[in-house]
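New to this. Help decode the following:
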Amino acid sequence: MRSSSARFSFPLNCMAAVLLAPAAFAQTPAPAVSTEAPAKSLGMVTVTSGQPTSLPTQIPTTIEGVTGEKIEQTINATDSEDALKYLPSLLVRKRYIGDYNHAILSSRASGTGNSARSAVYADGILLSNYLGNGIANGTNYAPRWGLVTPEEIERVDVLYGPFSAAYPGNSVGAVVDYVTRMPLQFQAHAKLSAFNQNFKLYGTDGSFGGSQASASLGNKNGDWSWFINVNRTKSAGQPLTFITKLISTTAPAPGAVPVTGAVPGLNTRNVPWLLIGGATQYDTVQEHAKLKVAYDFSPTVRASYTLGYWDNSSQNRSESYLRNAGGSPVYSGIVSINGRGYNLAATDLGVSNEALTHLMHGLSVKSNTSGVFDWEVAASLYDYQTDQIRVSTTAQPGSLNGGAGTLQDQDGTGWNNLALKGIWRPGGMQGAHIVDFGYQQDSYKLRILKSNSVGNWINGGAGTLVNDVGGRTQLRSVYAQDAWTFAPKWKTVLGARVENWNASSGFTDFGAGNPANTAYASRSESFVSPKAALSYQWSADTTLKASTGRALRFPTVGELYGATATVNSRYINDPNLKPENSWTSELTAEKDLGKSVLRFTLFTENTRDSLYSRVIFDPAANTNISRVQNVGRIKTNGLEMAFNGSDLMTKGMGFSGSVTYADSRIKENSGFVAVPGDTVGKYQPRVPVWRATGLVSYRFDPSWTGTFAARYSGKQFSSLDNSDVNGSAYQGTSKYFVTDVRVLYKVGKQWTAAFGIDNLNNYSYWNFHPYPQRTFVAELKVNL
């Protein structure tokens, strides 16, 4: 693996900002570095953290969260997204430890194919990747989880629904806000961990694991405070894809090699096929570094800078199940299986290498006077400094030493964000009104340049063009919302967001003379999204609240212009895609039971012109044709119940749990999969009707804490027409019931040790790819 330390650069043109962090204040002045949890008052949430955050001061919606302390005690957290594992209605499609490109967040009414329908921030910096949506065209658009490590997390909060005017329409599903550590005094931490799973599926039977090392250091010296975190993960993941062949009806061609080892099975439509090999098995090394610096100009004005560095080096390898008469693996050519003929292409059991280095910058200056007016200026930048994927088009085993291939280059791709924000309290902190307002600008640039390698796919340069695609989008927004306490037990938040979206510089180039080469015309559209919430303090321990809001989720650059081509697939652009238009509402009752809180939420979402990617096989051209389309209307109705409690039944016992019911169906759609009308009335892909979580922990004594947790999801589908009836197969989306355990032991004041098992019951489940099987995790940590 190449060394990443030499590539840790600090380009001045990348300096930009910790963003979207409206100043946050409580009823009394808060210290500039407060890390308190959001406080609830009259059913609305008041943010008290003075650190950079994406949260507005008044949150008119359901919010759930977890602290860094609870994460350490109860969750086997190897990646930052694991902090969300047991929160209501959430699922991150994490396929292996270190999964950077498919770990998409889903929520109440959004599946794991819709990454652009949620928003993830860390210290106010956008981690969600709105260059595209989901996984498409050989590129990925999952949030950049790797820019936060579990050891950094002070707390993480999740807002459900698009009810705050401070967020764009991508918040329609959920907003995740990570706040990482910023010390008040000297602190140092170090952690070592190891993990392993025994994975057995089809013809694969092996052990896959790795290790992780993390260290952090911080201090506050007068007006200066700083924090550094470094992390290195080495991980071997299980095979994620499998090479399949439908049962042949033809005799072997002359010269076909007889082979054994093919595994019979059924595909997602219960059609018989053979699985002849496992592929996409990543050996990964990830390196992360984070520097945070803050300076207090005065007791009420603070400047903060964040630099994040993330490097991913991985090798993707394949394993053939087929063996010839001599017992040697067979990777390509004409073969005979059970007396029938098959052709193995050179790329069926392919290999590839990835080299990615991404940089994140953030800068913010904010005031915290707790007076009539406060303000913030923030900006951020996310830069694909290096992003290259090399793929062999030569058959194994020769490909392991070189040969022909392709190079996909996304260097220079990225996004930047600017936020100017204010808070006006005309009557002071005790006044009836608190007004949040601001201006935001979010700009995205995508370029995917794919070429044939010169000479050797492993290290050859770019040669003849395969495709070159890209473009830009920009969203400019102004917003305002007023939290008004208009009666002793009543409070409302009324707001609106005015947005202007434009797409420009879109192009596709498939080589000289190709009729698909196009330069697309620019587009510009404007919309207004109103928001409203009302809360009522029914009694001293019971709050009722209602929220409603409109959200516009605009097409991404990748959806508009991201056409790419491979040997067996083709993508069709549609530069005229409409934005998703969602109206979401919820009604919540929340009761404080003393040592616990119980919440019931009814929710509904009506979305027109949902943006969905679909793949159709064209037998005439023998190729898969992909395109993004607008689905006419999807309606979701549901109920969510959540419970959080501590010291239940006996001191030291805690329990949290949730149950979600969601009936999400396609109501209108002029598009179709096979025949007109075949998607109407079907379930929205990857949104299960039922899901649930539960976590019980018990502190046996000051040293020992044990945790048992469970996660459940019901039956779901991947296709718009719900024709994938067999979810427990490669490319299927299955139900699951998974249990986890963790034991934490404090060895004195400074040392802790932990041991955990994820998927204790070794449940085999799928989300197109197979999830991990039973995984063991061991940790040792020291705090100074």
Summary: Residues 1-35 have pLDDT under 50 and may be disordered.
